[in-house]
What we know:
The structure is a homodimer.
Chain A: H1 5-20, H2 24-34, H3 37-45, H4 49-58, H5 61-70, H6 73-81, H7 85-92, H8 97-104, H9 109-117, H10 121-131, H11 138-141, E1 148-149, H12 155-163, E2 174-178, E3 184-189, H13 190-195, H14 202-205, E4 213-214, H15 219-229, E5 233-237, E6 243-248, H16 249-267, H17 280-306, H18 309-314, H19 317-345, H20 354-384, H21 387-417, H22 422-450
Parallel strand pairs in A: 1-2, 4-5
Antiparallel strand pairs in A: 2-3, 5-6
Helix pairs in contact in A: 1-2, 3-5, 5-7, 7-9, 8-10, 15-16, 16-22, 17-22, 19-20, 19-21, 19-22, 20-21, 21-22
Keywords (chains A, B): CBS domain, Cell membrane, Magnesium, Membrane, Metal-binding, Transmembrane, Transmembrane helix, Transport
Transmembrane segments (chains A, B): 288-308, 314-341, 362-382, 388-415, 427-450
Subunit structure (chains A, B): Homodimer.
Amino acid sequence: xxxxxxxFQTRLERLAEALDSGAMDQVRRLLNRGLAxxxxxxxxxxxPPRERELLWEQVDIAAQGEVLQYLNEDIQGTFLTxxxxxxxxxxxxxxxxxxAADLLQQLPYARLQEVLDVMPVERRARLEAxxxxxxxxxxxxxxxxxxxxxxxxxxxxVLRYLRRHKRxxxxxxxxLVVSRRFELIxxxxxxxxLVSDPSVTVREVMDTDIVTINALTHEDEVASVFERxxxxxxxxxxxxxxxxxxxxxxxxxxxxxxxxAQTMMNMGGLEDExxxxxxxxxxxxxxxxxxxxxxxxxxxxxxxxxxFEDTIQQIAALAVLMPIVSSMGGIAGxxxxxxxxxxxxxxxxxxxxxxxxxxxELMAGTLNxxxxxxxxxxxxxxxxxxxLLGGIIAMAMVINLMVAALIGTLIPIALKKLAIDPALSxxxxxxxxxxxxxxxxxxxxATIFYF
Amino acid sequence: xxxxxxxFQTRLERLAEALDSGAMDQVRRLLNRGLAxxxxxxxxxxxPPRERELLWEQVDIAAQGEVLQYLNEDIQGTFLTxxxxxxxxxxxxxxxxxxAADLLQQLPYARLQEVLDVMPVERRARLEAxxxxxxxxxxxxxxxxxxxxxxxxxxxxVLRYLRRHKRxxxxxxxxLVVSRRFELIxxxxxxxxLVSDPSVTVREVMDTDIVTINALTHEDEVASVFERxxxxxxxxxxxxxxxxxxxxxxxxxxxxxxxxAQTMMNMGGLEDExxxxxxxxxxxxxxxxxxxxxxxxxxxxxxxxxxFEDTIQQIAALAVLMPIVSSMGGIAGxxxxxxxxxxxxxxxxxxxxxxxxxxxELMAGTLNxxxxxxxxxxxxxxxxxxxLLGGIIAMAMVINLMVAALIGTLIPIALKKLAIDPALSxxxxxxxxxxxxxxxxxxxxATIFYF
Lengths: 451, 451
C-alpha cells in the first residue's frame, strides 16, 4: 500500500527534530520531497502556531496551492492573508478552478479583487464564473473544465477527438453531449465508448435520462443526490439548461465530511472549521458566547429552584437528590431528541407519522420512567429512611421522563419549522426545560406533601 | 433534475391515501412503477411497523433486493428473517456480490448457511470470498467483479476485448493489470486508453505506482485513503499481492456517512442503524442501559452532595446556585472534549503537541472562568445580598472551569490509549467529574468560610 500511517508518524518526528535543531535545509527536504501535499497539510494542522509559520515558509511556492487546499479554513485564511496578490496567483495556479475558487473565498472581498486583477484573463473569467455562486451551492462546488461533444458524430470521431487530449479532467466518467447553443442534451459514459461499435453515432448510445444539477442547488442537496444515485460526477446547468460545469464525487465527499464534523462541533457551540491549535484568545472568545448562552439557561433554572428555598431549608435531602431527577430527564430527552434529529435529516419524519412517533416516545419514556423511578425510590428510602421522600422522587422521575419524551419530540420539529438547526440549539433548550421540570416536580411535590 | 423532492412528497401522500383506503392495486402500482428502489426504501423507513409490513408485501420480488440494500440494518434484519431461503436468493440475485454479502450478513449464521446452500455454485463461491472477511474490513467491502488484463497486449487488443463486454462493472475507472499468477502489477486508467495511440502495449502506459488496499485493512482506514487520494476505486489485494477484488467510492461514501451518524447516535447511547420507527419495547430496552449508566453517575454525584447536607440546611441559597456552577463546568469541559476528540480523529494530536494543547485549554478555561465568575458573583450578590457567597461561587466557578479544561483534555487521550471510543463514554465521564468538582467546590468552600 502506498499509504503508510507509520511512515507518516516517523517523518513527523524527524521533522520535529530537524525543526528543533534548526536544520532548515533538512526541514525543507523533508517537507517538499518526503511528503505528499495532503500530508504536509496534516503536519501543518498538527503544529502549534509559531512553528507552523516557520514550516509554512519552507514549503515550495509550487506546492503551496495544493497544500492550502487541504488545510482547514481557519488556517487557509491566516496563510492567504499574509501572501501578496501575485504570490496567491502563483500558488493557486496548479489548482482546478473549483478548488482555486474555494481557496480565494477565504480572502476578504478587497483582497480577492486584488488577486483577480493580477490573474491571466481566461483564468479570471473561469474563476469568476464559479465565484459568482454562493460557496454552499452547486455553482460554488463545480469545476468549469468539462469535455463536451456533439450528438451527430460517430464514436470513431469521438475517439479521435479524445486522442488529441493529453489527459482528460479528473473523474471524467461521462462526456457531455451539448447542442450548438451549449444546452445539455445527453451524456455518454466513457465505459460505453469502450464496449460499443465505433461506427454508431453518439446519439444512438448516449443517455438522455440523466441526473443534472441546477447551479443554485444547495450543497447538502447535491450530496444527497450523489449518494442516492451513486454518482461519480454530474453536470451543472443554468435555469435555461445550458451546461455550466460539473461536480465530481471528491468534492461531494468533502461536503459530507464537513457536514458530519459540523453537527458534532455545533452541538458544543464550536466552529466546524476551527484550527485545533488556535491561540488562547481566539479560543476563549469563540467559546465565551456559548458559555454565556448556557449561563442564561442555568440562571433560569436557578430562579426556578429559588422559589423553593424554604422547602430546601427544611429538607436538605432534596438538594442531595435534585441532580438525579434532572440528569435522568436530560439523558432521556437527549435520546429522543437525537432520534428525531436523525429522523428529520434522513427525511423520515413528516406530518403523517409524527403522532405515531410522539406516542411511541411517550410510551417508551413512561416505561423507562417507571423502571428507574422504582430503583431511585428504593435508593432514596434506604439512604434517608423516608418512604414519602421515596414516593416523591419516583413521581418526579416519571413526570420528568414523560415531559422529556414530549419536548424531545416537539423541539426539533418546532426548530425545523423556524428554520433553526436543531443540532445547534436543541440540546441547551431541552436540558434547560428538563432541569426546570425535574427540580420543580421534586421540590413542588415535596412542598405539597410535607407542609 | 431527475430528482424531485416535492414530487417524492406528493407520491408519499398519494401512497398513504391509497393504503388508507385499501386500494392495494394502486399501492402496488405506485411502489413498483412510480418510485426508484432508493425511494421505496425511504418510504418504508418513514412508515410505522404495521403499515410497513403491508407495503413491503406489495414490492415486486425482483425489486426487493435493491430496496433492501438501501434500508437500515434494523429493518433489513426484520424483513430478511421473514423470507425463506429461496426467496432471499431470488431477491438478492440482481445485486453485486459486495452488496448481496452486506445484506446476508444481517442473517443469523444458521439462516445464512441455508441461503448459501440453495444458491448457484459460482455465486456462492464469490459471496463466500467476501463473507470470509469481517464486515468492517476492506475484504467485507470489496466487489469481486473486476476487469483484468495482461501487460503485454496492445491497447487495440484491450479495446477489442472490452467490446466483447455488454457493459463494464459500475465505477470502473481502471483496468487492473495482473500477472499469470493473478498478482497485481499495475492499473490502466480507462481515460488513458482513450487518449493513447492504440498500438502501444499496456505495459508502456499503465501506472505501476498505484494505491492498493490490503483485504484486512479497517474500513475507516479505507475511507481515509480514498478521501486523501481522491480515488474512485482501488484494488484489494491479499498479503501475497494477489488481486481479490475492488472497492468503489459509493461504498466508501456509505462508510463515511455511517461513521458520522454513529458518532452522533453513540453520544446518546443509541444504536446507529436504529429504525426510526422501532416499536416501544425495543426502543425502551435499548435506551434503558444508557439511562442506567447515567443513574450510576448521578448517584455518585448525589453521594458527593450528601456530605454537605448540613451546610445546605444552613444556607439553602447554595442549592439554588449549585446548577450554575456544575452546568458551566459541564459546557466548558464538553467544548474542550469535542475539540480534542476531533483533533484525535483528524490525527492532529500526538505526544509532541499534547502539552501545548493542555496549556492552551487551561489558559482558555481560566480566562473564561474568570470572566463568567465575575458575572455570576454579581448576580449572586444582587440576589442574596451576601458578598461572601458571591466570592465563594466565583472561586468555585474558576476551579471548575480549570478542572474541566484539564480533564476535557486528558479524558479523550486516556480513553484513546485504552482503545475506548471517547465519543461514546467521554461525555458522561466528563460531566460526572465536573458535577462533582462543581458541587464539592461550592459546598466545600461554603463549609470552610461560613463555619
